[in-house]
Amino acid sequence: MKYRWLGMVGIVLLVDAGFPARLAAQAGRGLYARIAILRPHDGDTVDFEAGYIRHLEWHRQAKDSWGWYGWTIWAGERQRWFVYATFGHAATSLDNPVAPADDERDNLLNVTPHAQFLGNAVYEYLPALSRGTGVPTPTARLELMTADLKAGAENAFEAALIAGQSKLQAETLWYRMVAGGTAPRYIRLRPRPSLSAILEGSSAQVLPANVNAFVTKAAVEILTFRPTMSYGVAAVRD
């Protein structure tokens, strides 16, 4: 939602109640996502959250048609940082954000005084590697894995994950970074309803052994969904 933009998410089955609507939205749009990171200034979290909520109200009044997810990083080296993202876009859709100049003006008024804009990236959803629609189920928790690869390893990495795709038992979404950071980079989102659901599936946290040789760095973070800091996204009730 920042105009300079971009920027870095029980077992959820494909038959969950929200799946048909998300599938229809995905089929009617595209495979691109914008994912961004904000770091609240030390001691300024309360004012940051209040300012961000005011900024979302600007989006509502501007009749923004995009959905915006908001998460706080609960576990990881970036604890308390804020992740916001929008999913399911065609490339042409990304050319047309709502009122960019006014969006930027409102950001400068309500968000920038309380936080620093850090990571910004565009990602492409990879259906052949994944189980899901590419638009994450908005569950209470989200596991976010970031994997940086050796140069030139993309094809082998993806082929290995495609080979194991049929074994995925729950919503698992892979994205390839298109622009906005160190490349080649991939992220994996695993929406889950609780921390215990993530921990009970910890064996799936690690990457398959046959892809380890392609990875130079990997990190796993746990995010908490923030319904009041999201727009156009309804939280799933467990």
Main beta-sheet strand count, sense and barrel state: 8 strands, antiparallel, barrel
What ranges have pLDDT less than 50 throughout 5 or more consecutive residues? 2-28
Tally of extended strands?
Answer: 8
Q: What structural class results from the helix and strand content?
A: alpha+beta
Distance between the termini: 29 Å
- Architecture in CATH? 2-Layer Sandwich
> Tally the helices: what do you get?
6
CATH hierarchy class name = Alpha Beta
Shape: globular
CATH T-level topology: Alpha-Beta Plaits
Describe what you observe in this structure.
It is a single chain. By secondary structure, the protein is an alpha+beta fold. The protein has one domain (19-229): Alpha-Beta Plaits, CATH 3.30.70. It is 24% helix and 29% strand. It is built from six helices and eight strands; from the N terminus they run H-E-H-E-E-H-H-E-E-H-E-E-H-E. The chain has helices at residues 19-28, 45-61, 91-94, 100-110, 154-163, 195-200, and strands spanning 32-40, 69-75, 82-89, 115-125, 141-149, 173-179, 185-192, 215-225. It has an eight-stranded antiparallel beta barrel. Helix 2 runs antiparallel to helix 4 (100-110). The chain is globular, with a radius of gyration of 17 Å. The two termini are 29 Å apart. Residues 2-28 have low confidence and may be disordered.
